[in-house]
Amino acid sequence: MPYELTLDSPLSFVRGVGETRSQQFAKRGVRTVGDLLTFYPRAYEDRGNVLPLRDCADGGIHAVEVVCTSLPVSGRARSGLEYFRFCAEDDTGMLTVTVFNRRFLLSQIVVGRRYRLYGRISMGLFGAEMSSPEVELVIPGKPLEAVLPVYPLSEGLTRNFVRKIVKNCLSLCDQLPELLPAELREKYGLLPRGEAVRRLHEPKDLEETVQAKRTVAFAELLSFQLALRRMRHAKDGAASPPLPPPEEGGSFLERLPFPLTGAQAQAIREIFADFEKPVPMTRLVQGDVGSGKTVVAAAAIERCVQNGKQAVLLAPTEILAEQHFGKLTEWFDPADARIALLTSAVPKKWKETVKKSLAAGEVDVLVGTHAVLQEDVHFASLGLVVTDEQHRFGVRQRASLLERGEKTGLRPHMLVLSATPIPRSLSLILYGDLDVTLLRELPPGRQPIKTMVLLPKDRNRIYASIRRQIAQGGQAYIICPLVGDDADGEPAESEDCKAAESYFAELRNGAFSDIPMGLLHGKMSPSRKAEVMRAFAAGETKVLVATTVVEVGVDVPNANVMLIENAERFGLSQLHQLRGRIGRGTRASFCVLLNSSGGPCERLDVLANSSDGFQIAEEDLKQRGPGDFFGDRQSGEFALRAASLADLPLVKQTAEAVGAVLEKLGEPEYRALSDEADAIVRRAGDGKTIN
Ligand code: ADP
Ligand code: MG
After folding, report:
1. Distance from residue 500's CA to the centre of ligand 1 (Å)
2. Is the whole-model pTM more than 0.90?
3. Residue 384's closest CA among 409, 355, 405?
4. Domains contained in the chain, number
């Protein structure tokens, strides 16, 4: 039955895609032919650049053309993997090729035939070696493709399969709606969309991909920003309650055991100045870990409450919400502010009571997790919304909270705290017109954290120094990348990767058998988590084995040692966040980044040499994509498929184009772009956020 494929056709209509395959594609968000066309390669294999064996660099990824000189011999490795091995050569040298787990290739390897191999070359004891390269038979008169796209894979989908299916659909490229009107394309030197997309999937050479990438990246950044503008409340015309200084009554700031840093005092002044105006404040306070953002938030909250308005403080995790709750109850006089905690750990009955009190105006400050947002929480008179570590929240969620204030006719002020220093390009895109306050100063007396990159062979030495630190009254975090061996949703791991649960057991029975330890990971019940955290904060446990749940905000000043296992698996900003858990008190602090990759890891040296979060964040953005930066590659909102936020010039160009485009969105040529922005808004709406 011949039927025409359209962009909207489900993928199962495409030849070669059955039910299983289409489900595997769906996991990647690819459901229709149109989705597939915008499922861009993440890289390219430059197989056309064939090098003589002699010129290949040890450890480099190269294409070579060789003739097979020995019959393949098969065997089984100690790990159980099947392999076969054969020898080959070109005019300049010899090569041993080992192919694992691809028996079907065996019959295709024939002595005397010529093959193009693509993969990593290592110079071993017996000459050049290649392990599991891509193998293609060279047939005279039938040129092989020079550049092959590399698609992001998901379970069950091989590269070659994705390539084949994409090829089957490429003729539909021209049906993709043109997002960028001719005037924009001309102004910024961009291609028609169909042409750009075709080139990305099937480039003649690498050169061709450059302008193509720029084109789709431009369109993506532009529609992304348009979408954000739609989700964000238009500032114009909205009114907020002014929150002037009270006639009488002091502030908790006067009772703090420490003086504010200059940066904190300045931030508070800026917030208070905003508060005097009857327009909504939208201010981002960006401060490196440990710069003391909580005090700044508390000052804003206090001012709000002094004006008889309610304030809400949102944290991304329960642990952090509880910590904030603890701080506020310690700082504020209960006679001045009634504070309530609302997280999913709070018993249902108590939750109902809290909600009732909120609606009746009997609670002044609500501290909670984003669970608060999902439920039917009503405020009597909301004056201020503070979100801590805001990038973990959806833009949508934030807007929904602001709307709750609007029932009173007034919009609450908004204060965003961000500990992950956000590079300028990113804050431009994410926040656009937000006012930014930087806290580039740490409280005095902080000991710089000494950071070292060490190897697994150093482990006993590391354990010994942890014991020493504990004997001197310190405490240690040990961070592992995984929860347990069977953690679902996690990528398959080899035994070299420390899983928190088994590592905890190992340490308790071994190196730290006489030291009280705690275990903390995201899969534990909220009450268990809280108890573990409490015990560590109180110094009852000395070592806390944890996953990255401690990444954000956890504040135990007495902890001064951190060992991060498999540090090579983490992003730079994430490591910097983790490291920020120590160096908070007066003890000298040590952070050990254990590199188990078996090779050098340059990224880690960046951390050993810098403690400037802003610099590290820029570096991170350069090295990894923005999805990684947010620690959530799949998030509907931040899933940029083509663009990189590290491409600052392009980000700037698009940010600059947004203004002009907004004025023209009603015109027919801008229709597709406008629809695209709508689609992003919808995706963000049902996109899951983490935690
Ligand atoms: P972050 O900016 O990472 O959220 P916190 O608000 O958790 O930092 O503050 C880190 C620690 O520093 C807390 O224990 C806090 O009480 C303390 N702190 C905050 N401001 C100061 C200051 N001006 N002087 C000394 N310690 C401070
Ligand atoms: Mg914090």
Report:
1. 28
2. no
3. 405
4. 3
